[in-house]
Design a protein that fits this description.
- By secondary structure, this protein is mostly helical.
- The model has no long low-confidence stretch (mean pLDDT about 75).
- The chain is built from 3 helices and no strands.
- The protein starts with a helix and ends in an 11-residue tail after the last helix.
């Protein structure tokens, strides 16, 4: 849960107060009893790896592509 809150906070701060919303993103991590510590780490590390990827960061935080399709 802390990771999801932290990611959401980073995204809000990165956008700035005057920016318009062009992306709504929901991140969910399964923390039920069916998930053990190893599975939780896989989920968490996958999110962290995604946000560290330059192509993903550009798609999320970069300027809109006026002629593009919006695809990653």
């Amino acid at each position: 849960m802390r990771l999801a809150v932290a990611c959401g906070t980073v995204m809000m701060l990165a956008a700035g107060p005057a920016a318009t919303c062009r992306l709504a993103l929901l991140l969910a991590i399964d923390v039920s009893r069916s998930i053990d510590a190893g599975d939780y780490r896989i989920q968490r590390n996958g999110l962290l790896d995604a946000f560290a990827d330059p192509a993903i960061r550009a798609a999320l935080f970069g300027p809109p592509d006026p002629g593009g399709t919006g695809d990653l």
